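Ligand-bound model needed. glycine.
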Amino acid sequence: MKNLSKYILLILFIFSCSNKYEGVLADNGMVVSARQEASKIGVDILKKGGNAFDAMLATELALAVSYPSAGNIGGGGFMVYRKSDGSTGALDYRERAPINSTSDMYLDENMEVIEGLSMIGGLSVGVPGTIAGIFEAHERYGTLTINELISPVIELAKKGVIVTEKQKNRIEENRKYFKLVNKSKILFDNDFNTNDTIKFPNLASTLERIMEYGRDEFYKGETAKKLVEFIQNNGGIITLNDLESYKPVWRDPIIFNYDGLKIISMSPPSSGGVCINQIMKMIEPFDLKTFGHNSSNYIKLLVEAERRSFADRSHYLGDPDFIQVPVNKLTSESYLNIRMNDFSFEKPTDSNYIGYGNIEINESDETTHYSIVDQFGNAIAVTTTLNGTFGSKLYSNELGFFLNNEMDDFSSKPGYPNMYGLIGGEANKIEPQKRMLSSMTPTIVEKNGELFMTLGTPGGSTIITSVVQTILNVHEFNMTMQEAVNSARFHHQWKPDSIRIESELFDEKIKNNLIKSGYRLNDKVSIGRVDGILVKKDKKLEGGADKRGDDTAIGF
Ligand code: GLY
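Prediction:
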């Protein structure tokens, strides 16, 4: 009998292995991004002999052309790398608050937030960092010439991009805002149907100037002057001085161990690395495999760790160049043990009795992520954003790109007590040249001292929880990269006190169990769009391109 059950288990194991749904496989290098055009341009650079940092510059710009709702040159981002020799690092090219900004710039005379002011139009724009960031990474680690990297992108902008169904819908949904914000008709006011081609001749000209004159064209040259004039004509306060003084910053990534893995992720001003460190360390003592994937106990445990981490995020995190972020304390074992002392599977902890802050995290879910592994063994994870879908909705026809609304990632009204007398958000208040807090979590994972995974996602605050779940899907639940990114997700962020859940994808019994235990569920159609690359045991690369978007993995 014992032998028979062993035999059945073996058959089930073989069956489950043979049924694994793998993504694109490759032997040498791979790019996974939100658009096929961008992944292809990135991979072509690798095939030409370029490395991951070369491919970064080309892929990022190709996303600005093919995925203008989040891909950008008018925004900013973060890159985490692990080179083939095992060295790691992180680049912060997040936007900064303009020099003329003030902590109350979005408040009326009664100190109430003026709705929309930090979200759309010229005043919502932070000083863009993307061009400085990709040039900085290239200058330090790239090998091909700028001309070789930008030429294919200019060609793409001239030839145009085929509109997908999802893209068409996104443009349609935002058209009313384009009309509201822009003084004249913009390219995206035109009716586009699925399979139409959109050409970007003005963006091509801007890129041609950047190719010719380099990074400074964007920050000091003709483009800079036109950009400043345009933003100021539209109610913004960015000056030439803001652009000229913009600098990306190399930072030490957040590094921690989880169950034999080494996780390398983005440090402040992103909250991503600190939060995934906290969450994963809080759940590490539990045997997740025995709970089962997306079981109610698994969800409860993760949700309670997320709740505690997001409460800390709201109070402690901000730009480390302006405030002291107590990273070591927040991620220490003793602190996290205390934090989980009152955790119980029986009932939720009330968010009102946890931690700090009076602000709800209110980030939009439009950002984009790409992952690259090159044929030399270097890996990068890059998340870049305009913040909202099409950012501030302010589009320069002349320059051919949208501007971010990243100022909305600051706390517009810090220091005010909520109904329980809790104060928060000071750490992330607006100050001239400060970087706004982010959730972007580009992450690289090592196993046994070797590259294992590179991943990340858009999704505002859900970025953090999506990255954690995707790593756990692979590591704890033995999923392929493609299965891991497609898998159903849930999210809790302390306030509002509810679990966002891709409801259609979860079992009714599990949802009922959570509700019975006292959790509030909030249906969400889609959480994140994770793009990752897994190094398999046989050293092949497997791409995971999230089915929720038009995301595409291309390898060679
Ligand atoms: N704007 C999204 C983020 O930085 O998290």
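The pocket of glycine is lined by residues 363, 367, 385, 387, 409, 438-440, 460 (CB under 6 Å).
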